[in-house]
Amino acid sequence: MQRAKTKSLPSFEALPSGDRQTKYARLMWREFYRAARIATDELDPVPCRVATLALAHTGVETAYGAYLYGWNVGNIMAQGTEHFYASQDTTAEPLPGGGTGNKVFAARFVWYPTAFAGVAGYLKVVRDRERYAKAWAAMMAGDPYFLIELRHGGYFEGRSYVHAGETLPRVDTDEEILAVFVQHVQRVNADTCDLRPTKGRAVLGMAIAGSFAASSVATTLANMLED
User: Fold this and answer.
1) Which residue range is the domain that position 200 belongs to?
2) Closest Cα to residue 59, out of 140, 149, 171, 147?
């Protein structure tokens, strides 16, 4: 395994949070769309759906570029002989009085040479790892529930998903995470709509009604990214 000599950090990390969100989405859209077309081997609107959800998820993972190192947009951990950078991460652990907290540990994350390589690497992980098969299927369908399927596949663990400085509040349940994530998807959709091919200019409509536990995905998510 090789340590990368440098960390790459975009030049827009100092912008106010709201502006950074839009800046990240618009500057990175081309890379996400291009990588999504290759990863899906599909025509629009499928690549646009995948790119939109990927931008929303990775935006949260990196606080919309404020903590983007080595162009690792999805915070993918290094394995084998990949170039990596060392950093801290957290994992859930039981607390003596009950509940769970975050345990900090040293971790190695993949270092990618370019933004496109980082995006392609992230999509490859979601597409090719069996435990994320349901997440990839939801992503291809333009269903924001893909984030919950990522969670169920072990991509992140409960509250450890949100760290200080990131852009989601500390939430616990699938329902809470999904409700907030939908807002991020809507924002990305609005920020990048004019950058897309005509067939990919989708509008996200989302309704979350009733009990999440008692509702199926089909009834809980009333509207998806449409053609």
Assistant:
1) 2-74+115-220
2) 147
